[in-house]
Amino acid sequence: MPRIKLALKEEYPFTCDIQVRVGDLNYGGHVGNSEMVGILHDARVALFRAMGVHEGDLGDGKTGIVMDDLVVNFRAEAFLGDNLTVGCAFGEVGEAGFRIHYHVTCSGKTVAVAETGLVAFNYAARRIAFLPAAFKAKALDFGRGN
Q1: Which of 18, 30, 53, 122 could form a disulfide with 77 if both were Cys (CB 3.0 to 4.6 A apart)?
Q2: Nearest to 93 by CA among 113, 117, 71
Q3: Which family does it belong to (predicted)?
């Protein structure tokens, strides 16, 4: 089976720090795979907060997001108490969805590279929606590092 290999982006305009907690560890004593997904989620929440939106409301009062896909490439271990820096960058921004690229590091060493595909979703109507124009503009602006 061929391996999905993510490449590092040139820059990650948004960064946040997340400390590894005891609940993030698996039986091997390092950050587990499902816990890394939670760390990426925390970073996405911080990114959206910096944009003035959240996952349940992209700024129009009715449009949230659902995850379409997720890929994580692990490159190194992370341990209890490690301070992870998670860089985020928007990738493709379309009419109804977008991608976020993540670079997780610890003391300058790459721990993981990840990518999520997210789709705009109207929870009241239970269907895919268009991205609100203001969110789309902010995402494109963050993608350019502004």
Answers
A1: 30
A2: 117
A3: Belongs to the 4-hydroxybenzoyl-CoA thioesterase family.
* pTM score of the predicted model: 0.95
What is the distance between the alpha carbons of residues 116 and 47, in angstroms, rounded to a whole number? 14
Superfamily of domain 14-143: Hotdog Thioesterase (3.10.129.10)
Residues 40 and 113: beta-carbon distance below 8 Å: no
Task: For 89-120, write each residue's pLDDT tens digit.
Answer: 999 999 999 999 999 999 999 999 999 999 99
**What ranges do the domains of the chain cover?**
14-143
CB atoms within 10 A of CB 118: 22
- Give, for 125, the enclosing helix (H) or strand (E): none
